[in-house]
Write a structure and sequence with these properties.
By secondary structure, this protein is of the alpha+beta class. It has two domains: about 50 residues; about 140 residues, Orthogonal Bundle (Transferase(Phosphotransferase), domain 1), CATH 1.10.510.10. Helices cover about 40% and strands about 20% of the residues. The protein is built from six helices and ten strands; from the N terminus they run ββαβββαβββββαααα. The strands form three sheets. Strands 1-2-4-3 form a four-stranded antiparallel sheet, covered by helices on one side. Strands 5-8-9 form a three-stranded antiparallel sheet, with helices on one face. The protein has a three-stranded antiparallel sheet with strand order 6-7-10. α2 runs parallel beside α4. About 25% of the residues are buried. The structure holds adenosine-5'-diphosphate and magnesium ion.
């Protein structure tokens, strides 16, 4: 069974029916924290259904110029919630569709896959989407903005970064294949080289 989303704009609500109890538990765990950058949890059935506040906005992929510093702040906030050694809560599915923009504010949604992992995993995965969309000049700016914003508040481990990249690229590529995503930007390989250069 696939996850079902029912949007009720009149009621300002979104019903999300998760396709597994595990997914539901993960979503609930984050929404119960009442974070300022996630939709408000209105109700849940204790099994698989969540009722969330509807964010009347758009995905960051549809913005002409997303504010990557502000978006990185969301990732920083999520990562700062809990730690397990060097690991933290990672969103894991950093598809731009899981980042919304409404009235000058950015939101994170879809916590069905979060895991305790090294923070580098989210940053690399997030950047891979933009590496497949933007030309190299634009991607370099995004890369610097994300990394510099993150580093101002939290550490990035360069060794972890280097070691994790191949595995995350492989996850990224196999998912894109599975969901038949449109062709990537011709600069994708150049961008992935830029992505490797963390200091
Ligand atoms: N609270 C919300 N407010 C506005 N739109 C939402 C909300 N929750 C989900 N959506 C929309 O529905 C899409 C799918 O929801 P999501 O929770 O990401 O489920 P999944 O990706 O697992 O199908 C999102 O990309 C977004 O466009
Ligand atoms: Mg999603």
């Amino acid at each position: 069974m696939k996850t079902e989303i029912i949007i009720n704009k009149e009621k300002n609500q979104v019903i999300k029916i998760c396709n597994s109890p595990k997914m539901f538990k993960k979503e609930l765990y984050i929404y119960k924290k009442k974070l300022p950058y996630t939709p408000r949890l209105i109700d849940n059935d204790g099994k698989n259904t969540l009722i969330l506040e509807y964010i009347d906005g758009i995905s960051i992929i549809d913005l002409v110029q997303p504010d990557f510093a502000k978006i990185t702040e969301l990732i920083i906030n999520l990562h700062s919630l809990e730690s397990k050694g060097d690991k933290c809560i990672c969103h894991y599915d950093n598809n731009p569709k899981n980042y919304l923009y409404s009235n000058g504010k950015y939101y994170m949604i879809d916590f069905s896959e979060w895991v305790y992992d090294y923070p580098e995993t989210d940053l690399i995965h997030f950047l891979l989407f933009w590496a497949s969309l933007y030309d190299s000049d634009k991607f370099k700016i995004v890369f610097d903005q994300v990394i510099n914003t993150y580093k101002a508040k939290r550490m990035i481990n360069p060794l972890e970064w280097e070691l994790m990249i191949p595995e995350i690229i492989s996850r990224f590529d196999s998912r894109r294949k599975k969901y038949g995503k449109k062709q990537a930007h011709p600069d994708i390989l150049k961008n992935r080289e830029i992505l490797k250069n963390i200091i």
